[in-house]
Amino acid sequence: MAYSWETCPTEIKEFVFCILTKTRKLIQDNFIGFYVHGSLAMGGFNPRRSDIDILIATARELEIETIRRLAQLFLTYSGNPFPVEISILTLGQLKDFKHPSPFEFHFSECWRSRYEEELSLQTYKHLNGEIRKDPDLAAHITITAQRGICIEGKPIEDVFPSIPSSFYTSSILGDFNDCLENIVENPVYCTLNLIRVYLYICEGVISSKQEAGIWGLLSLPKEMNQTLQKVITNYSHNDDSYEFEKKELISFRDYIANKVQQLLK
Prior knowledge:
This protein is α+β, with helices and mostly antiparallel strands. It has helices spanning 10-27, 39-42, 64-77, 91-95, 112-121, 137-147, 156-159, 165-182, 187-203, 209-219, 225-237, 246-264, and strands at 31-37, 52-58, 84-90, 101-103, 105-107, 132-134, 149-153.
């Protein structure tokens, strides 16, 4: 079953509030706001599959020691029980937004091994004061501005800028191209993300993976329905109840790729 912030079980909300409390304690008077975006904000959160997506705004840059403590915090709490993807940006980075955007701190499970190694060896290559940029932030901020939830702090409209549609499109096309290459290895995630991008390019609609799958069933050629039904079932139940033939995935990929390419011309 998929949840929104309003409908999710108490366990999920308590986990989010725990993260809020602990991050705010580390950030202290630098804290501006704590915001949820992604599937939990848009109503497609699957406790067995989804990340909890968070943005935090600060008044000014973080000190290096604070960044190290944040890394340790998320190594401890992410995945226990829900994985977390979080980015922290200053008001200056948001106000003078550039694409790809600089950021103060980022954590996702993809970064776990590098943080574990660096904190263990005290090398801090990814935790120092160098300027880091993330092309995905244009998408995260757009989604937050349109469909995000302010858990605590200043209202979303007072913090997050309007991102040019060209930046948002560039941001989501990065993941789109990755999914074109990896659909056979990761059919559920890639199929739903390909539809999300196609839906935005086609109609300007920002959707969750679940919403994109439902739209695909209603809007894409009927011969794709069997594949989409399998994808949606596997996604909803977080299992591999249905297997996929390479031929059907390549056919679906090529159809979406051609449609998006035509719309972008």
